[in-house]
Amino acid sequence: MKLEKEKRGSTVSQLYARRSKLNVKLEKLQKEEIRVQEEVAKVKNQLEIIETKLSKETDREIVIVTHAYDRYRERVAPGTDEEIRAVLLTPEMEKMIRTLGNGTYPLKDTNIRVVSADYKIVTVYTE
Length: 127
Known about the structure:
This protein has about 130 residues and is α+β, with helices and mostly antiparallel strands. It is built from four helices and four strands; from the N terminus they run H-E-H-H-H-E-E-E. A hairpin with a 2-residue loop joins strand 3 (about 110-115) and strand 4 (about 120-125).
């Protein structure tokens, strides 16, 4: 009987020790969980800001400035503003400008190059 009681006591003390260790571990994990939740909230906020900025930028209209119309007429061919706009602002050109930003882009299947800055086609030249 005494041996059985000692065995049970030993088991109980082991359980108390194990419980104590698990409570310490739980406390650490809960603190870590709070830190991770705060970090997740920060990242979500940063993503929301970026999405808002991207939405504003990608919704902007691409404009062809007067200089570009004039250079097109001088260097490529005569035409009305509407005709030139149809030639220059193809879906492919619009996608390049929106995706890549400022730069010089080839007009598909032509020797025409379009120079873009800040969602504007600023000039045109041929190669």
